[in-house]
Every structure is written in structure tokens, then in C-alpha cells.
Amino acid sequence: MPGSDRDRTAPSASATIAATRLDPTASVPLHRQLFEALRQDILRGRLHPGRRLESSRRLAAHLGVSRNTVLEAFGQLTAEGYLVAVHGSGSFVSGALPTSPRPPATSAETSPPQAESASISLSGRRLSCLADAQRSTHLRPFQGGVAALDALPIALWRRVGARALADLELADLGYGDPRGFAPLRQALAELLWSARGVQCDPDQILVVAGAQQALDFAARVLLDPGDRVWVEDPGYLGTRAALEAAGALLSPLPLDGEGMVVEHGIAVAPNARLACVTPSPQYPLGTGRGVARRLELLAWARDAKAWILEDDYDSEFRYSGRPLPALKSLDESERVLYVGTFSKVLFPALRLGYLVVPRALVRAFTGARFCSGRQAPIGDQATVCRFLREGHLTRHLRRMRVLYQERQRWLVEAAAELGGRLDVAPSEAGMHLVGWLPDHVDDRSTAERATARGLRIEPISRFSLEHRVRPGLLLGYAAFDRPAIQAGVATLESVLEN
Ligand SMILES: Cc1ncc(COP(=O)(O)O)c(C=O)c1O
């Protein structure tokens, strides 16, 4: 676990595993052998995502090789995206890699990837590491971040879609504005103002293929390789993946009850170019962010001429009180890029989201949108636009708030039976809860055992790079009915008993 005492004191598995495979008499240089041995350890799951490696000095001493050999191997692993170098803390296995071990490769499997890595770009190699990061699997309790697909008004969606297509003009069917369908951008500007307090012109809005594409664009447009970025620790893996793919250096900042600790960021990386935040509510811990902290972050960005990326992924699901307006609503210096998505309010396979950028960035982002698929599919954009305009989205959200509150209550009630083995407290917002484990329990192996029993649970430590929080499990509830939640908790109980 990153930052744990065990990591700091005991020889890590990497040394033991790598030591058995280094051959000083081989024609392949030692740094290349070490690179390959560690790469295999990572790919086979022997070194987990988020795990801190021993320092180069200690590893070199263990292996009886020079420190430069280790540094060279680490450098290559970092460049290719397997490791993330954290200033002052060491090297960690990239959190964006999949957790479950891949089956051992056959010799037929191992040769082509080596040939591939020799003939593609550095950026291509970084991307190869992310290929399995967010594999889709069958929906299983307690997968997080998935809406109630069983409660989608599919028949209505189809009818609205048919009318939207019928109303399109011939001119709408050609190559259009890369920023997206103008009536949808107009509707979004109105929605952002009324629901999130964000004032923007439709010209500043880009319709994108989900929040993930917005994160990718932001990383590519705003950063050069080697630029520093503040990220929440623990934080969303998709953000880290996009940043790592762009060659950014991550500065993981701890969180308190108010969100990212800005003071810490100013102390360790005052010249960061970008800060990525999920202020309402924080992912994955679900904490809020008070106005004072928001203003502090904005003041830093203004003074440092840095950007803030606000990922407002599920602010629509708030169950009591009024939602706090978006951070973007306070952005007088035009430093905030705002990201929203239809994945949570409608369904993820729709792959539609939106990005609001400061005026100075409109041209660069329009170019990025053009290069990446040119524009979003017109049928989907027109359907969403009509769904919004006819008030269906508001009504659907109203129903989902009631349903999610109920599903959350079922989870909390079922989990109460687990006593002190899992502490699940209700929350005023979101689509998942964190089930906290006793301090001595390893959340990763618990999650792995749960996965082997047919659940899909992420350990909270998977989202941490440097700042360890209590062991816990991310429990999504929005997509599951009562029997699924109760059966899932019963399975979890048997996992925790072991
Ligand atoms: C914090 C956060 N940001 C972004 C996303 C990605 O959303 P999209 O499906 O729009 O790419 C998710 C999805 O779970 C998320 O949890």
C-alpha cells in the first residue's frame, strides 16, 4: 500500500522477483533485464497498481547492480506509463493499470508486444499500458458510477429519438461545427446557468464523447510532457490515465473534509500547470468542498496562471439541501474548465458529455475536437437536446433521486448487519458509498476475494498514490435493485468472515 510502513522497511517483492531473473552474463544489458522483469511483475499483477517501489538506491543494493542501472530501468518504465514518479516520494505502479492479474502469457503472446514496443512512439507505449484500464464487464454489485439502467425510460428515449431524427434538416447531416450541434449547446448553456450557476456562452461549450474525452483533451491541449499537475489523492483513475498518457508529472495532494489541501500543493509544486478536482462531491471519498477552499484554489490558479479542471461528474444526485453551485460559477479570472457528462444522468454507453472552456482556449479545444472524431454523432446530440428541451431529463432525474436514495438506504440497512466488519454510513449525495474496514484489514485482498465470488468492488487504496486513507471498499448502489443489494451484502459477509 503506498506510503505504508511495510513499504518503507521490508524488501519489496520487486527485489525478490527481479533478483531471481537478472543474468549478468546475458547479452541483454542489465537495465533492460530489470525493466523487463519489473514490467512483467506489473503486468502479471505481482506489483499492484498504486504500489510504491523500493528506492533506486535500496533496489540497487539488493540486486548488486549500480544505481544507474536501476534509474535507467525506472526511467523507461515511467516513460512508458508503467510507473508514476512522485516528487519526494518515489516511484509507484501506475494506478490506471488493471488490478486483476493477467493470466501467464504464452511464448506466442510475448514476442509480438516486444516487436510492437520497438516500433511505436513513446506516447503509443504509454497508451498501451492503459489498454485494459477500464475494461467493461457484466454489471455486478457493487460496481460504482453506473446509473440505474433498469429504470431508464427506454421507450420514451426511442420515441424522442425518432422525432429528433425526423426534425433534422439536410444541413444538419453534413460536416458540422466540431463543437457540436448548436441547439444542444444552447440548451446546455441554459441548463448550466439554472442548475450549476455557470454563466457561459454556447460558443464556449464543446460536446464531447463523455467526460473521459474532455479529460484527454485537457491533458493534450494544456500540458507538455514533464508538466506538473495537482491531482486529488485518492482520486479518479480516468483522470490520472489521461494525464499519464500526456506525459504529465503528478503531484498527489492530500484531502481533508473540505477537499484538496491547496496549501500542500503550493508547498510541494507551486508551479503546477493544472489542478484536477472533483469538488461536488469528491471522487471517491464523497466529501464536499467549502467555499473558502474553492476560493483558495481559484486564487492560486489566478496567481500561478494555472488551469483548474472541474470534473462535475455526478453533482445532479444530491438528496438533501440545495447543491453547492459549481466551482466554475466563482471563476472570475477564467481559469476553470468545466466538465459534465450524460453518463450518470442517462447511461454511460451514450458517450456524450460536455466541456466548457475559457474563451482564450476555444480555438485550441475546437482543433482537438476536430482531430478526434471531428464531431459527436448528430442523432444522439439531437435526441439529448430534445430530451432536455421537453423536460424529460428533469423528470427522469427527479425519479432517479428518489430511487437512488432508496437504493442507498437498502445498502446501509443490509450492511448494518455486518457490525464492526464494515462501516457504511449514509451520504447526502452521489451514487456510491465507501464501506470502511477495520484498520488492520487489507482492502485490496478483500476486494480481490469479493471479485472471485462474483462481486465487483474496488478497494479505496487503489485510488491512492501517496496519501494513505483507511482501508475501505467502494460500493456503488445506483444500478442495483433490492435483491441484488441484499445478495451482494450476504456474499460480502462471507468474504469478510474469512
Ligand atoms: C469522477 C469521474 N469522472 C469522470 C467519469 C467518466 O465519465 P464518462 O463516462 O462521461 O467518461 C467518471 C465515471 O465513472 C467518474 O467517476
Write the layout of secondary structure elements.
Layout: H1 5-9, H2 13-19, H3 30-43, H4 56-63, H5 67-79, E1 83-86, E2 90-93, H6 107-119, H7 122-129, H8 154-167, H9 182-196, E3 205-208, H10 210-222, E4 228-232, H11 237-245, E5 249-253, E6 255-256, E7 259-260, H12 262-268, E8 274-277, H13 291-304, E9 307-311, E10 336-341, E11 353-356, H14 362-371, H15 378-389, H16 392-416, E12 423-424, E13 432-436, H17 443-452, E14 458-459, E15 472-476, H18 482-497
Parallel strand pairs: 4-5, 4-8, 8-9, 9-10
Antiparallel strand pairs: 1-2, 3-11, 6-7, 10-11, 12-13, 13-15, 14-15
Helix pairs in contact: 3-5, 4-5, 8-15, 9-15, 10-11, 10-14, 16-18
The chain binds pyridoxal-5'-phosphate.
Pyridoxal-5'-phosphate binds next to α10.
Give me the number of helical elements. 18
Any low-confidence stretches, pLDDT <50, length ≥5? 1-11, 101-113
CATH superfamily of the largest domain: Type I PLP-dependent aspartate aminotransferase-like (Major domain)
Structural class, from secondary structure content? alpha/beta
Helix coverage percent of residues? 40-55%
Q: Give the total of beta strands.
A: 15
Give a quick precis of the structure.
The chain has 498 residues and is α/β, with parallel strands linked by helices. Helix content is 43%, strand content 12%. Strand 8 (274-277), helix 13 and strand 9 (307-311) form a beta-alpha-beta unit.
What report would you give on this structure?
The structure is a single chain. The chain is α/β, with parallel strands linked by helices and 498 residues long. The chain has 3 domains: 5-93, Arc Repressor Mutant, subunit A, CATH 1.10.10.10; 152-394, Aspartate Aminotransferase, domain 2, CATH 3.40.640.10; 398-497, Aspartate Aminotransferase, domain 1 (Alpha-Beta Complex), CATH 3.90.1150. It is 43% helix and 12% strand. It contains 18 helices and 15 strands. It has helices spanning 5-9, 13-19, 30-43, 56-63, 67-79, 107-119, 122-129, 154-167, 182-196, 210-222, 237-245, 262-268, 291-304, 362-371, 378-389, 392-416, 443-452, 482-497; strands at 83-86, 90-93, 205-208, 228-232, 249-253, 255-256, 259-260, 274-277, 307-311, 336-341, 353-356, 423-424, 432-436, 458-459, 472-476. The strands form 4 sheets. Strands 3-11-10-9-8-4-5 form a 7-stranded mixed β-sheet, sandwiched between helices. α8 packs across α15 and α10 runs parallel beside α11 (237-245). The radius of gyration is 23 Å and the shape is globular. The relative contact order is 0.13. Mean pLDDT is 89; it is low at 1-11 and 101-113. The structure holds pyridoxal-5'-phosphate. Pyridoxal-5'-phosphate is lined by residues 145, 210-212, 236, 238, 278, 283, 311, 313, 341, 343, 348, 353.
